[in-house]
Amino acid sequence: MEVRNLTVKIEEKVVLRDINLSVRDGKVHAVMGPNGSGKSSLAYTIIGRPGYEVIEGDILLNGKSILEMSIDERSRAGILLAFQEPPAVKGLRVAVLATAALNKRLGASDLTKPADPSIPNKIYSLLERVGLPSDYAYREVNVGFSGGEKKRHELFHVLLLDPKVIILDEPDSGLDVDGVRMVADIIKELRDKGKAILLITHYARLMRFVKPDEVTILYDGKVAARGGPELAERVEAEGYSFLNGDRH
Ligand SMILES: Nc1ncnc2c1ncn2[C@@H]1O[C@H](COP(=O)(O)OP(=O)(O)OP(=O)(O)O)[C@@H](O)[C@H]1O
Ligand SMILES: [Mg+2]
Prior knowledge:
By secondary structure, the protein is of the alpha/beta class. It has a domain at 2-88 and 164-247: Rossmann fold (3-Layer(aba) Sandwich), CATH 3.40.50. The protein is 38% helix and 25% strand. It has helices at 39-47, 71-76, 94-105, 119-129, 147-161, 177-192, 204-210, 229-238, 241-247; strands at residues 2-10, 13-22, 27-32, 52-61, 64-65, 79-82, 165-169, 196-200, 214-219, 222-227. The strands form 2 sheets. It has a 6-stranded mixed beta sheet with strand order 6-7-8-3-9-10, with helices on both faces. It has a 4-stranded antiparallel beta sheet with strand order 2-1-4-5. Helix 4 (119-129) packs across helix 5. The radius of gyration is 18 Å and the shape is globular. Magnesium ion is lined by residues 39-40, 84, 169.
């Protein structure tokens, strides 16, 4: 996936300016940057969330523009975002949502009854993989979930839907030490399977486990620095103040 000269407006405010960035299959591209620098806006623009108006540039998937595609079409084309702040959905159980999502993929008209007999087992084994007890299948989506449990549930959906381009918006925030290791292991596994991964994070800790192929730093809606994992270490050690010197 390639983001080319992308400038984006939300409600008359320019939040991203002339962003260039690409993620290749089997690679992890990490995006860092201070609060409000535009990381989540970039993620939302890529998935096509309404309200994020592309005023210049393009987003390409396998060389073809996706800008005219709806959020649903982008999802079916294989782009998935694991949210920074996933919403709670009262009345909708984890297993019901997961079954509906898989059924939809399989083209089933009835979204409630598993379209394939392997679906329930798949749900249980993936819940286990992300460290959620199997009875979470019957909990309402994110209702009363702890911060870390919400992150684990997002990752459960990534594994369930098996997308090609995976955007992880702070998958490590709120996770305990073992949780961060688990996220790192899953990211490495997905990279080995050839997925293209855009990893938004504030912490070098996750990157020490993952070793991203590329690191981009956003600052005030612009690409302020690009490099390898050493850039993440520099941010951890010095904060973002060094960018002021570099940018002028
Ligand atoms: N709907 C909106 N209306 C107005 N401003 C918005 C809207 N959505 C985002 N912004 C602004 O866009 C800027 C970028 O926000 P964004 O959420 O992309 O930052 P971020 O880099 O993800 O920050 P964080 O590290 O805190 O998650 C912020 O200044 C934010 O207030
Ligand atoms: Mg954000």
